[in-house]
# Entry
Amino acid sequence: MFKKFMAAIAVAIVLGGSAFAYAWWDNLDQTQEETLTIGQGVTLEVAASAVAPEGKFLVPTGAVLKANDVTEIVLTYNVALDQAVINPLTLSVVASDVLINADATYADLVNINIVKAETTVNNVDVLVTVTVTLTEPATELAYNAVHNQPITFTLSFSATQ
# Structure
């Protein structure tokens, strides 16, 4: 009787641990982070890539979500100046040259939202969050062309007076 009881407890622990591990793994943040250092009056261009994590699929906002679908990919950048300054500099971040699977045909479906924690950069890093989403295409042909395809674009970072 004692062996059966211990076996039941062992099975419960294994199943509970597996469920917990899956729940944790499934909720991992879809975020990519990078640190950048820029100089005054210099524009730093970064080749950005918004690709869904392994096993996940980027789908347009408003689509019916399945188990492994995500509607956004978040990229974060910590931006710092290469030298200390007395007066804060205005931080500018602009996205350009958007491509889906190396093609600009449906680039207008890509939404790139850039949020800066501060509008100026001084002697403290500024967190810049770039959220990439897709607008739902009007046709099935367009949907098939953009569904889970890599999205690439250029981010231009500059700090000026």
In short: Strands lie at 31-38, 43-50, 57-58, 69-70, 73-81, 89-100, 110-116, 120-121, 126-134, 151-160. Residues 16-30 have pLDDT under 50 and may be disordered.
